[in-house]
Fold:
Amino acid sequence: MRRFLSALLTIAICLGISNPARGQTEIQIADPEVTYTFGGMLTIETEINSEVSIQRVLVLLQPAGETENVAAVATFTPPNQVTYSLDLSQNPFPVFTDVYYTFQVELENGETITSEKFKFDYDDDRFPWQSLQTEEFEVYWYEGDTEFGQTILNTAYEGLARLQNQVNVPNPDKVTFYVYASTQDLQSTLQMSGQAAAWIAGHANPAAGVVLVSIPPGPAQSIEIKRQVPHELTHVMLYLKLGEDYDKLPNWLHEGLASTTEVFPNPDYPLLLEKAYEREMLIPIANLCQSFPVDAANFQLAYAESTSFTWYLLGEFGNPGMENLIEAYADGVGCDRGVELALESSLAGLERDWRRLNFNESPLRSSTEGIIPWVIVFVTMLLPTFGLFVGDTIKHRRKNEKLQNAKGD
Ligand SMILES: [Zn+2]
Structure:
């Protein structure tokens, strides 16, 4: 078991003896003892010995993947006791990540010595986790028997195979799944980690190789497994493929690929799309590049459209086209430019083809929709001329009427 989990975690990692630069005072740091409860209090205790008196000790913490430190002064009790406390409800760390920390020791002679890095795993310790693992995957769950854990593992392999049919991705070294028994449990975990939780049933931390899913017991359980496990796995696998360039992919492609690997896709999507199409409420794909809408109805529609559009691209351009597209985006080009470079078409053009194919849209509707803005521009340009022409005609008519009246008089 990779992570040691208990109600109160105690992790002591490596004895730290600072390697001072030449001429620096040498300090010795005993094995730090880390205790915490998830979302509660974190305490780090150690002993620091120095030839020169210690004035102050700071602790700098940084969760893996984060760029910012949490830094605060520890309590130093002479001759060598150091105690550091942090309220994790006020300073939440992402769940299931490694947290790195160092000690900054300020001495009476004005020297500041920074220790080597220490680390602890920050886990959700509120549940009695059971686990299963293979070379590629590790599964933790707290409700259900071993068969349940095995089903999660099997579905992870099924999802991986589906993804590998669409995109070239390597087999993972280790992806870890945490299976929550309700969306409330999962959402509370995310909230306590300082992460967005609204409408979220599954969550991936791709850089950490961690997936969180919520699979409640009941008749829909196997459907949810087949939907969520491959979906979240795809996000992690795309990170494994792209590394730091992962964030450069447009949102519609991230979610589109994740949804196309679902073994049991969301059955609401086709109806949702059809209704939105009929009401002319489809969201332009270009609007789904950066982020998704935050209101519940459009949030779902954004997923439905991304999925359908990605299926269309896979159907039209196959695996090589998809590889080219991912590569173009990973190079950092924009949403439109990526499509132009990889698929030699415009995003708007592909969107029109997708609508034609998906909604049996007549070429006239899709083509007229494309030219409507131009018609407006054209009419606006002609309006003053048209106005003059109409005005002229009225003037002529009045003039003629006057003449005829004069004749009649
Ligand atoms: Zn997703």
Remarks:
- The first helix runs from residue 146 to 166.
- The CA atoms of residues 62 and 69 lie 5 Å apart.
- The radius of gyration is 31 Å.
